[in-house]
Amino acid sequence: MPSTKFAYREVLLAFVLLALLCTSLHANMRKNFNALESSYEQGKINEIASQISTLKPSSNEEKAFVLFLRAMVENKSSHVSSGYLQQAITNYPNTKYGQLSMLQQAKLHVLQRQTGQAKTLLERITSSQILERFYWLAVCEEIADRPSSVISHAENYQRLEPRGEFLEESYYLIANAYIGQGKHQSSVSTLNKLGAIRGYPTDTQYFHYLLGYSYHMAGNWQEALSNYKKGMQITRYSQVAYMIEDQIFELKAKYGDRVDLSFLYPYQKLDILEQVSPATPKQEVVEIETPPADAPLKLTGKPVSGLYLQTGRFGVEANARSIAHRIRGLKLPSGYYEDRSRKDVPWVTFSGPFNTADEQEQALKLLKDNQIDCFKTRH
Prior knowledge:
This protein is α+β, with helices and mostly antiparallel strands. It has 15 helices and four strands.
């Protein structure tokens, strides 16, 4: 009898030790997951990539988390990333990271203009913590040209996330929706609300362009011109600046001499050099070499295949010609062509072709250093 009692105690002790060991292992694993979650929230993607393979998820939440992280690490490949996200959505739809996977997958659909699929996923998100979904629903409705729904979703986002990541963009969505409805004064009011928020706007040139355009459409050409002028003072060589210039000339055509354009062509004082005396050493004059014009500035169609930079899209041909000339002045190949599929802004400017990706990257840096917006493209 004593031996049986002793054996029972041994088995009981073994179970207790095993339970303690499992609890300890689970606690350590939970600690690892928490640390990795913190790394993700801090944007330490490289650190995450090296640790994912060591994780051994047990709960549905942890399994969804690992799939979500794999998708974020593999985001250079949209196909692979989408596959991981879809697994999390299918298998663990009610977990935190299953729902976040729905949000990320919806964003991928938006980028591919698959707004129906994006909207379906966004409407499946029920988490009260994922408020960003309202912003992306507004984006989907803008693409689908449903301005009333744009305004509804964007206003929900602003109400629930008053300092959210996409706060400024949500105001622009609403303003453009009102413009689409012909409610230009409502657009003005919306943008003035944004301007009254401390720290906003951050994209000041686009803000003044859109506010100027709203006043323009509302018939208040003085306020329109004032905002256009503020926008032009930020930089003269961005895509938005050329959009502003187009609108300024529309004002000029409609209101004539009442529209003062002197700020576009500021008077520059000429420095007249005094005659150099024979005893003074003659200063060396350095001539800037004009880039060879071995190709026409205006093309009859899109450029031939190769690596390029798109440097703008304009409604007025003179603006396209001007920026193309300016780029050639930087000793880079440039030109422009008419894109007949876009009647509102048909003139596209470009730089290239470039022989290698390195040349393309160097040209991109040079243009941006000279306040010329551009992005890489391939024809």
